[in-house]
Design a protein that fits this description.
The complex is a heterotrimer of chains A (397), B (84) and C (351). Chain A is α/β, with parallel strands linked by helices. Chain A has two domains: 233 residues, 3-Layer(aba) Sandwich (Peroxisomal Thiolase, Chain A, domain 1), CATH 3.40.47; 152 residues, Thiolase/Chalcone synthase (Peroxisomal Thiolase, Chain A, domain 1). Chain A is built from twelve helices and 14 strands. In chain A, the strands form three sheets. In chain A, strands 5-4-6-7-1-8-14-13-9-10 form a ten-stranded mixed sheet, with helices on both faces. A two-stranded antiparallel sheet of chain A has the order 2-3. Chain C folds into two domains: 212 residues, Thiolase/Chalcone synthase (Peroxisomal Thiolase, Chain A, domain 1), CATH 3.40.47.10; 123 residues, Thiolase/Chalcone synthase (Peroxisomal Thiolase, Chain A, domain 1, 3-Layer(aba) Sandwich). Chain C has twelve helices and ten strands. Chain C is globular, with a radius of gyration of 19 Å. In chain C, α9 packs across α10. Chain C is α/β, with parallel strands linked by helices and 351 residues long. The chains are: A alpha/beta (397), B mainly alpha (84), C alpha/beta (351).
């Protein structure tokens, strides 16, 4: 199975470096970061912790998305809808009951932003509408959007921390290749919330300055938000359509070492990459670019680097982490970086990381600092998370 | 000092839910992490919270905590120093 | 590829961990079905348990019980599911943020709050580096996890899977559910009182149901999983009839009788819509045992599997007429809030 992979007929994205594919690509080209002071999320850390915030208010999102989105003010649902709209437009998606269509989304905290607001209002003596919490659960945005897109097949939400949306892409590819679905929308979303901001802050892994993934002086990550989706279609449905690339490899493993820290040698990361290459029937030297998980934390970047070195040995492909642009978008990260990987294939360019100066002494990896042309056929993208969840994907042009 | 050590010990056992630990067996100079009491990196973060909430003493980061959290005695010394 | 249930651990409001074939219903003391908590030290060493919420401990216990029941030392994959995740830890962390106005907060509840905490903890405890997934899709959380497990068997990627569904109810989630108008205030004491007509208001519950699935039949095997079908939508009798008929025809054939149907719903309309076309098939309810929660369907599958293994109904159903012997097939229908429907067909293993 899967020698030819599954065709990608649409991609859509919203992140702190752009509200659509083109804007995001332009930012990657010009090296413009999306990390800055938070303005939409109201937090005590407003001036202390930079974030990668999407530059669209909930009201703007609602107005542009149209009538059916007036019912929800969950930023998670709105961001997901926004990116999904672009992906499905490119795929010329029409609701059709004769086509078996699936939707697999991913998120870590769902509608937590609204629940926070609700409880905050209650605490200060207000009487907020209970509707605020109606979209709390992780599956709520998926259920809502499933109705919008006439989904009549497999519909679910994956929540495996920071690897969530990579897993959504993996499962979608398998369901299309086995003929269980004719087409599927896959990806993920997370909105900034006090919950995650204070959570990562309590773990002392937030950098108070813009993050420096894979750099020796790195001090932690910046949180980001956003959404990205791909449309995957069967060979029959994709025929004659523009294809943005193919999903050809996937691997999911667990590090099984510690609740939040990776094993010193990055065992989960190694296994996920190894499985993905095997599925894609590719040798390490056939990978032309690696989009690293590269969060900017001491632990992740070191262990991921070790795992990459162990697998690729002396022939390291060009690699970088794009989290210096977007921040760590948690449940959306796998999908956002999948879109970036596909853009690298489309444009035949190796993507740069930002703010890298000095290699990590123990591993000596030298990430790409400036975008440059290359012959790029296969891209590997890594996504790892709490609970040891580790996933890797391979995209092919 | 010995009194403070005892108090910190009880607080740690309670805060970290170390129900399996026999109070009497933890000496003031025993290692809290690794081979000693076996605490881990998440416990280090909880110790930072504990010191701030119960003793009004700040530790800036887990790295800074490394020396401070060595044993009950080093902890007590740090608290005494900062509070005094 | 056939998939067998070879191990089972059910933590619920009934005393189901030792055996799901219970002798009597223990009705809740209030409007909420609280789960009966296992003796945790039997399943989790104190050092491991010290950071775990009640929910995590229930889930890990159910999973460990299923594993030892299956006699398998390890599994190739771990798939968990939950509608609302670790509510107690999420609520605790959120309150701490709001109470302290984003002051110094303890990180443990945050670390333990993510939906994949059960799956991650199980991987850690079992030192399992295999495939690890967590699903959360309201009333289809468990069932989409089950579909993923069946896919992995079909692809030949695994020989065994630890699959589970778990949800907890906390004070905060009960309170918010009350405000959303989801709950009945009455205390259930009979099936009649539990299942009502024209309303999907219900008594909330909680539980953790874990299964060891295997590609191979063993002495321990409970049942074979034939197929799962999911659909969404408000009560629609003709649609339910056509889904049911098509599902049975595909998986049972036209000449095979269905011996037993477990119906998990709080609404009489669903009961009638499923039981009527089944004619003489023995139909029994199960949601009055657990109360409603997102992953309650997993309890139904566990109960059905136990009945097939023991070839007998629990005493609580003995008043039911005409229990066909032997019981070769068992269908589980689960409904969540009149929107999430699922059909799971189980078959007895050949001895």
């Amino acid at each position: 199975m899967a020698l030819n992979g599954v065709a990608i007929t649409g991609i859509g994205i919203v992140s702190s470096i752009g509200n659509n594919n083109k804007q995001c690509w332009d930012s990657l080209v010009s090296g413009a970061t999306g990390i800055g002071p938070m303005s939409i999320l109201q937090s005590r850390y407003q001036s202390e912790l930079p974030v990668g915030e999407v530059q669209l208010s909930n009201q703007q999102l609602q107005e542009d998305l149209g009538d059916s989105f007036k019912k929800t003010n969950s930023r998670t649902t709105l961001l997901a809808a926004w990116a999904m709209q672009e992906a499905t437009n490119l795929a010329q998606w029409e609701n059709d009951p004769n086509i078996v269509s699936g939707l697999i989304s991913a998120t870590t905290v769902g509608g937590m932003d609204r629940t926070e607001n609700y409880l905050k209002d209650i605490k200060s003596g207000g009487q907020p509408s209970i509707r605020e919490v109606a979209m709390h659960d992780c599956g709520a945005h998926t259920a809502f959007l499933g109705k919008e897109y006439g989904i009549n097949g497999f519909t679910s939400t994956i929540s495996t921390a920071c690897s969530s949306s990579a897993n959504a892409i993996m499962l979608g590819a398998q369901l299309v290749l086995t003929g269980k679905l004719d087409r599927v929308i896959v990806g993920g979303v997370d909105a900034l919330s006090l919950f995650t901001l204070n959570g990562f802050n309590a773990l002392f892994i937030l950098d108070a300055t813009p993050c420096r993934p894979l750099d020796a002086s790195r001090k932690g990550l910046n949180l980001g938000e956003g959404a990205a989706y791909l449309v995957l279609e069967s060979a029959a449905l994709a025929e004659g359509k523009k294809k943005y690339g193919k999903v050809v490899g996937w691997g999911n493993a667990n590090d099984a070492f510690h609740q939040t820290a990776n094993s010193p040698e990055g065992k989960g990361a190694y296994l996920a990459m190894q499985k993905a290459l095997k599925q894609a029937q590719l040798l390490p030297e056939q990978i032309d670019y690696i989009n690293m998980h590269g969060t900017g934390t001491e632990n992740n970047d070191l262990t991921e680097s070790r795992a990459v070195k162990a697998l690729f040995e002396d022939v390291l492909p060009p690699l970088s982490s794009t989290k210096g642009f977007t921040g760590h978008t948690l449940g959306a990260a796998g999908a956002i970086e999948a879109v970036f990987s596909i853009m690298a294939l489309q444009n035949q360019q190796v993507l740069p990381g930002l703010r890298f100066k000095t290699p990590i002494e123990a591993t000596g990896l030298n990430p790409v600092k400036k975008m440059r042309a290359g012959n790029i056929k296969n891209v590997l993208s890594n996504s790892f998370g709490f609970g040891g969840n580790s996933s890797s994907l391979v995209f092919k042009s | 000092m010995e009194e403070l050590i005892e108090k910190i010990k009880i607080d740690i056992i309670e805060q970290l839910n170390l129900e399996d630990v026999n109070k009497e067996e933890v000496g003031p100079d025993d290692l809290l992490f690794g081979e000693g009491l076996g605490l881990d990196s998440i416990d280090a973060l909880e110790l930072i919270v504990l010191l701030e909430k119960k003793y009004g003493v700040k530790v800036a980061s887990p790295e800074e905590g490394k020396e401070i959290f060595k044993s009950l005695r080093t902890l007590a010394q740090y608290v005494q120093e900062k509070a005094g | 590829m056939d998939t067998y249930i070879n191990g089972l651990g059910l933590v619920s409001a009934q005393d189901t961990l030792a055996s799901p074939l219970i002798k009597a219903v223990s009705w809740p003391q209030g409007p909420i079905y609280k789960a009966i908590e296992p003796a945790y030290p039997q399943y989790i060493p104190a050092r491991q348990a010290r950071r775990m919420s009640r929910f995590l401990k229930m889930s890990i216990s159910a999973a460990q019980h299923a594993l030892s029941d299956s006699k398998l030392p390890t599994v190739d994959a771990i798939i968990t599911s939950t509608g609302l995740g670790c509510l107690q830890d999420s609520g605790k962390f959120l309150s701490e943020i709001l109470e302290s106005s984003e002051g110094t907060v303890s990180p443990t509840a945050f670390i333990q709050s993510t939906h994949n905490t059960i799956g991650g903890q199980l991987a850690l405890i079992l030192k399992n580096n295999g495939y690890n997934m967590t699903y959360s899709q309201k009333g289809h959380s468990f069932e989409t996890g089950l579909q993923d497990a069946l896919l992995k068997f079909e692809l030949g990627e695994v020989n065994s899977v630890l699959l589970g569904g778990a949800d907890e109810i906390t004070e905060l989630s009960y309170d918010l559910g009350s405000k959303l108008g989801l709950w009945k205030n009455s205390i259930p004491s009979s099936i009649e009182g539990f299942m009502t007509e024209g309303s999907n208001k219900t008594n909330p519950g909680e539980g953790a149901s874990f299964f060891v699935l295997s590609a191979h039949q063993e002495l321990e095997s409970y049942a074979k999983i034939k197929d799962v079908l999911l659909w969404n939508g408000a009560f629609d009798k003709p649609l339910m009839h056509s889904k049911l008929a098509a599902f049975l025809e595909t998986n049972l054939g036209t000449d095979q009788p269905l011996d037993l149907c477990l119906i998990g719903t709080v609404q009489k309309e669903h009961w009638h819509a499923i039981s009527e076309p089944l004619g003489s098939t023995n139909c029994i309810p199960y949601k009055h045992l657990t109360g409603e929660y997102h992953t309650a369907g997993a309890f139904g599958v566990g109960l059905g599997a136990s009945i097939l293994k023991k070839q007998s109904l629990p005493d609580i159903y003995q008043n039911n007429p005409a229990s066909a012997e032997p019981i070769n097939s068992c269908l589980v229908y689960n409904n969540y809030f009149n929107d999430y429907h699922s059909l799971t067909l189980l078959e007895a293993v050949e001895v």
